[in-house]
Amino acid sequence: MKPGVEMTEAAEKQNKNRGKMSTEVSPHRKQMGEKMIHEQKLEAIGRMAVGTARSLIKPVLKPALINTLNLISRLLPVRSPVPIFAYHSLDESGSFLSFSPEIFRRQMEFLHSRGYRVYTVSEYTKLLYEGGEMAIPAVVLTFDDGFANFLTEAAPVLRKYGYRATVYIPTDFIGRQSDFTSLVDLPILSGNEIRKLAEEGFEIGSHSRSHPNLTRLTPDQARNEIVRSKVVLEDLTGKEVRTFCYPRGDYNREIIELVKEAGYQAAVSLRPGNRNSIADTHILHRIVIGPRDSIEYFRLALGPLFNLYYRLFKI
Ligand SMILES: [Zn+2]
């Protein structure tokens, strides 16, 4: 027998033995297996019970908890945060990307009545870099995806109060439909509209070219998305594009480096939270207010207890 054949046979034998070992189950092992199945069943029942309890108490507990925290917030001698809010489309469809224009109007009215100042992302990050004094109270408003309803639903309200926002555009979709998402089918701002908004003082930021998950692209493809979109918007507006918004909030260390290399001074993420420091400039926390969130939740998001609430309850 050749040595090669011998080795193959030996390996086969070993495999056969291994097979035997795995099919022959000792009584002790069998008992252990049954115990594990029993524990898994118990765990599943427990999870179901917690889920049911949560869904039952949520409608009652959530507003009560938010109201209580808002009350405590007013008494706390803590410096207020400067939250960055993330909106997408202002429409009444109730989709995951949609927010009610009416509630948006109420939110802006609330901010104005309380003397809030609104910063663009660039203005805000400049203050972070320079250690400048933030106006208190203040917020930052961002709109992802460049939906054309920004012009009809958001801009008039913002102008009324002298507010400006930062609008993030996926440049391949300028003047087209929002084909990058299946959640809504809406027109995206045209080149002319974007130029006019920039002239008016709205900040235009990049949201990549084609709105991909950047972490799944090759470094060259990701660089192209990050760099080319900046060039397109700068050519269009004649202004420097200083900030970036990660499509779908997806990023990793390599993507952050590419964004920095491309010359963006800041980038917004979807990490929830209402405080940012100099360490966060390229992964800025933002708060997404959902279509069903109350004005009290918005008020909580403006206050010092939001991060605690989110970490502990997340409801
Ligand atoms: Zn987006």
Description of the molecule:
Helix content is 50%, strand content 13%. The protein has 315 residues and is α/β, with parallel strands linked by helices. Strands 1, 4, 5, 6, 7, 8, 9 and 10 form an eight-stranded parallel beta sheet that branches. A two-stranded parallel sheet has the order 2-3. The chain has ten helices and ten strands. The protein has two domains: 49 residues; 231 residues, Glycoside hydrolase/deacetylase (TIM Barrel), CATH 3.20.20.370. Strand 5, helix 5 and strand 6 form a beta-alpha-beta unit.
CATH architecture term of the largest domain:
Alpha-Beta Barrel
Query: What ligands are attached or bound here?
Result: zinc ion
- Give the quaternary arrangement of the chains: single chain
**SSE string, helices as H and strands as E:** HHEEEHEHEHEHEHEHEEHH
Query: What do we call the CATH homologous superfamily of the largest domain?
Result: Glycoside hydrolase/deacetylase
The helicity comes to 40-55%
